[in-house]
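Holo model, N-(5'-phosphopyridoxyl)-D-alanine. Inputs:
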Amino acid sequence: MTQRTVYVNGDYVAEQDAKVSVFDRGFLFADGVYEVCSVLEGKLIDFPGHMRRLKRSAGELEMGLPWDDDALLTIHRELTRRNALEEGMVYLQLTRGSAGDRDFHYPGADTPPTLVLFTQAKSLVDSRSGREGIRVATQPDWRWARRDIKTVQLLYPAMAKMAATAAGADDAWMVEDGLVTEGASNNAWMLTHDGTLVTRELSHAILPGITRTVVLELAQALSLRVEERPFSVEEAQGARECFVTSASSFVTPVIAIDDVPVAGGRPGEVARKLREAYIEESRRRAV
Ligand code: PDD
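Output:
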């Protein structure tokens, strides 16, 4: 595999030379936030939305972000260019940096944050899960109570995905008090038999997905009725269709929940339409 070029605190370096301190708070405390922005035909998808959420995540944690949107766009574009990335993702991580020691308290504002970006090539439009759908297994939502902040504390989502894989599924859906919160790394949706699209309302319980926002707009353009409310596992299992949304999966049909087939175990028509519309709109808006 060819060596990637990675961005670390102002420098573009070969991946084996990309290093941060062992005292970095991202490493010691998961004191960091991140974004994943997808790339199609070498251009960035939903970039302004991802940067808006990055600022919000950092702000909620009183973390400095001494780069404006233009500077961040330049870094994203330069990294995409240097890695000749046509399709895939750009991962960005911002941490509170290193105070040179381990101390729970935040260091002073004079401690520079750490900013790291790298690319990951992946076929996003032509993907098997997009075509055939995925099977999900439910897991208790044991994440922290501020899931609206996109932090790098992803151990529990990783555990949930491992448990889902062990159960023969492709991904996990998180459940709290009998209600689906979201997927382990995506937002969860269902379509009722009377044609209403349902996804959970924004709160501290879920991440405000950027793809979710665009899909809500597209649903309106397609004259679909939309309700933002929680739904149970049983309601989703009996729904006309289910799907998930995220930057890296766009709109991906869900064909089974805990081994109960959804929509006869085949990708649904509305999920397919929304996926196509999302890809078309993304190509149009890419920067
Ligand atoms: N995950 N919910 C969770 C818990 C997520 O981690 C993600 C994104 C989403 C969807 O957000 P968006 O549409 O903005 O990508 C919802 C990214 C892709 C990841 O961790 O790789």
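The chain has two domains: 5-121, 128-285. The mean pLDDT is 97.
Archived with the compound record.
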